[in-house]
Design a protein that fits this description.
The chain is built from 15 helices and 22 strands. It is an alpha+beta fold. Strands 3-2-1-4-5 form a five-stranded parallel beta sheet. Bound molecules: adenosine monophosphate (AMP) and glycine. The site of adenosine monophosphate has 12 residues, from strand 7 and strand 17.
């Protein structure tokens, strides 16, 4: 299908969410056959990979990234604007004739950026759910209740507040260790505790309800521990029952090799994932994706954007560990590599409520990413270290995360996760070799990366041969 044909499908979005009036942004998209002016919100490796992909689109007029990082300006124009400054974003949208906002990180979505623009004169298209939809990530209790309402497989659970602490302690003693305690609200990826000892778990429950994660842990979800291997499934949905399943990825959350040490934002990622085969994905689609997409519609929740399913395979069966309402980081740094289609018309169609006729072609090659991080991360670490990197081989891309330009124009570190070294390969070994080579060549004082990214999947692939 040509881009021209794709664009024609963007007209007249219709919502079949019964009680809610359809978001009118599709109607306000100016000339749908003309190139799009896009504002991407966020500053991580995920946004760098999204910017890289969007910038390749023949449909793009201009890409702005707010605030972006030291690498995103290779693909568009960085603007000093906080993703949470909705009034500032609205002024920027009006002044710069923005057609579409792509929301990279969860905070603006949970804070209601979609609802802020909904129904406004001249509102841009927004890739991302309404505030009600963003509660799938913003409240673990809401997400669990949603899964129960729609019979979506997930761990058995109960939620507790300070008023029901005694019941929470009793529930813990009825479960088998390890105990899984989750702060209900956003906690920058730190709100999940997995504890082996019952008394320690009870103590942590008391501390969480007492404000360990502020208001985010005023409610705590306690759930059964699931044993299995995890993967990340991404769905782009249009709120009208249309959806596309993006390439599956696996990330590596712990700082240390062999999955040891504290959790990080993610130390690397691989796609495809050997165990997420056709049979597994058929179950995921039937039991999880369809009930999620249709459940949102039946509850009148407007959701036009990415759904991130954190899944665990337990004895061959997929179960949901968590929902996120955005793409994963560093999963995006491999998923974007594997999307062969032009992403921009897909995003615009999702935001306009009309994805069902859009093709999605997947690159059959492997993609891997190895995150080079600052020494000390995820604890405290220095910033401002000068970064050097030689030109990369074809097929290797450095997606910047915690980088910026200092006043002398040097590229310096500005975060824990610094650069995602992403590469293609015809097999997993080839992609990994290229990612590790790149990670070895990126230099700054105190750098660290895990050398075992993908090792578990290599073992699974070898055992299946
Ligand atoms: P979440 O923030 O919900 O993704 O949880 C962080 C991590 O904790 C997940 O990626 C899992 O590795 C682990 N986890 C969360 N819930 C469970 C569970 N019910 N059973 C086993 N591991 C879990
Ligand atoms: N890599 C996991 C996340 O983005 O939440």
């Amino acid at each position: 299908m040509s881009i021209q044909q794709n664009l024609n499908t963007l007209r007249h979005p219709v919502s079949n969410a019964p009680e809610k009036s359809p978001f009118n942004a599709g109607e306000t998209l100016k000339e749908q056959t003309s190139p799009l002016r896009v504002l991407l919100l966020g500053s991580g490796g995920r946004e760098c990979a999204l910017a890289w992909k969007i910038a390749q689109s023949p449909l793009l007029d201009h890409l702005f990234i707010a605030p972006g990082n030291g690498g995103t300006d290779a693909y568009g124009e960085n603007v000093e604007l906080s993703p949470l400054d909705f009034d500032g974003i609205a002024r920027f949208v009006a002044d710069n004739a923005i057609d579409m906002i792509v929301v990279g990180n969860e905070d603006p979505l949970v804070a209601g950026i979609f609802d802020y623009f909904d129904g406004r004169e001249g509102a841009p298209l927004i890739v991302g759910p309404s505030k009600a939809g963003a509660a799938l990530e913003g409240s673990k209790d809401f997400a669990k209740q949603f899964m129960v309402r729609h019979s979506i497989p997930t761990a058995r659970y109960r939620s507790f507040t300070a008023d029901t602490l005694a019941e929470g302690e009793k529930f813990l003693s009825e479960l088998r260790p390890p105990y899984v305690l989750k702060a209900d609200g956003l906690a920058a990826g730190k709100g999940v505790l997995i504890i082996d000892d019952l008394e320690e778990a009870k103590g942590s429950l008391r501390e969480m309800l007492g404000g360990m994660f502020g208001q985010s842990s005023a409610t705590v979800v306690i759930e059964e521990f699931l044993k299995g291997i995890e993967c990340s499934v991404f769905v782009l949905t249009d709120g009208n029952g249309g959806y596309r399943i993006l390439p599956v990825a696996k990330d590596y959350k712990r700082i240390g090799e062999g999955d040891t040490g504290p959790n990080t934002g993610g130390m690397g990622a691989v796609s495809p994932v050997a165990f997420a085969d056709e049979e597994f994905m058929r179950k995921v689609e039937e039991r999880i994706i369809l009930p999620t997409v249709n459940g949102l519609i039946s509850e009148g929740i407007t959701y036009r954007g990415f759904i991130f399913l954190g899944l665990i395979e337990v004895d061959g069966e997929p179960m949901v560990i968590e929902y996120n309402v955005r793409m994963g980081d560093p999963e995006t740094e491999v998923v974007m590599l594997r999307i062969a289609s032009d992403l921009l018309p897909l995003l615009a169609a999702a935001a306009a409520g009309n994805l069902s006729t859009m093709p999605l072609a997947i690159d059959p090659r492997y993609a891997t990413t190895v995150m080079v991080v600052s020494g000390g991360y995820p604890g405290s670490y220095p910033k401002g270290k000068v970064i050097t990197a030689p030109a990369m081989a074809d097929g290797t891309t450095l997606f910047h995360a915690g980088t910026k330009r200092d006043s002398d124009g040097n590229l310096v570190t500005s975060g824990g996760r610094v650069i995602a070294c992403s590469a293609y390969g015809h097999d997993l070994d080839e992609a990994l070799a290229a990612s590790f080579t790149a990670a070895g060549e990126v230099e700054f004082e105190g750098k660290y990366f895990r050398r075992d990214i993908g090792a578990d999947l290599r073992a699974i692939e070898q055992s299946r041969k």
